[in-house]
Amino acid sequence: MNSTVRMDTVGSVLVVTIDRPRARNAVNAEVAEGIAAAVDLLESEPGLRVGVLTGAGGTFCAGMDLKAAARGEQMTVSGRGFAGLTEARAAKPLIAAVEGYALGGGFELALACDLVVAAEGARFALPEVKRGLIAGGGGVVRLPKRIPYHLAMELLLTGRTVTAERARELGVVNHLTPDGQALHTALELAEEIAANAPLALAAVKRVVQLADGIPESEAFVVQAAENGALLRSADFAEEIRAFAEKRAPEWRGQ
User: Fold this and answer.
1) So which residues are the catalytic ones?
2) Where would I find the beta strands (DSSP E) of 61-204?
3) Three-state DSSP string of 56-101
4) Beta-sheet strand order (sheet of 13-18)
5) Is there a contact between 126 and 90 (Cβ–Cβ < 8 Å)?
6) How far apart are CA 72 and CA 62, in angstroms?
7) What is the pLDDT of residue 2?
8) Cys-Cys with 42: which of 51, 94, 145, 179 at CB 3.0–4.6 Å?
9) What's the CA gap between 102 and 63, in Å, rounded?
10) pLDDT of residue 213
11) What's the superkingdom here (predicted)?
12) CB 165: neighbour CB atoms within 10 A?
């Protein structure tokens, strides 16, 4: 049992909650292992379609637990990166539900997700340069790919904290909610996604991730292969039957 990371199932959605509110949900070794285990559960359980990552007590995550780091704890998981997530290759969609602070590694956890829902009072920052470091959990790598280069560099070079509204203006946040409603809105979004074909959802993620580092012509080859496999799938055949019978398809992920 991991007391610092809770896993709750809501229909076909796995809600993963970092539960160290007294430490502002900072990541220690136990949190990293717990998040990695949660991703494993999400990926291995066919009935789970989408994951939602959030934090307890009105804070998303304040980043690395510096006291734990001073004790020699490892906040990375082999092959998974910081907090067991920032370098993981999850096939299923992940949504960050952000309340309060998403600082340093906390912001990087949000960037590791596919969508971000944030409460109006949320705050985002990558302040590592103020401590003589860089945002090594994916911030330096991912932020310039998500928003215009000059705007990303401003946040990375100043370490400035921005509001949720500004993060939405930049394109980091998908949906802005009243305080206390980020998880509720993230679950609504997760349910909308989970209603779609699971093989197609996974294919979308694979193509988007692969296309990021290869020429466009090669990306179209990858896309064609993925779409060809989907056309041959049992789920696509089920969609054809369901359309003809005027009913919702019953996806099996096959």
Assistant:
1) 108, 128
2) 76-77, 81-82, 94-98, 101-103, 115-119, 123-125, 162-163, 175-177
3) CCCCCECCECHHHHHCCCCCEECCCEECCCCCCCCCCCEEEEECCE
4) 5-10, 13-18, 50-55, 94-98, 115-119, 175-177
5) no
6) 19
7) 79
8) 51
9) 7
10) 79
11) Bacteria
12) 13
* Interval 104-114 mean pLDDT: 98
Q: In degrees to the nearest 10, what's the CA dihedral of 25, 30, 32, 34?
A: -100
**Distance (Å, rounded) from C-alpha 158 to C-alpha 155?**
5
> Contact 26/74 with Cβ under 8 angstroms?
no
Identify the band that residue 103 occupies on the pLDDT scale cut at 50, 70 and 90: very high
As given in the structure block, the two tokens for residue 46 are 């066919």
pLDDT of residue 6: 97
For the entire predicted model, the pTM comes to: 0.94
Give per-residue pLDDT as tens, 217-232: 999 999 999 999 999 9
Count of beta carbons in the 10 Å neighbourhood of residue 195: 13
Return the amino acid letter for 88.
Answer: A
Whether the CB-CB separation of 141 and 135 falls below 8 Å is answered with no
Q: Say how far apart CA 110 and CA 120 lie, in whole Å.
A: 16
What is the per-residue pLDDT for 1?
A: 63
Give CA–CA dist 212/185, Å, rounded: 28
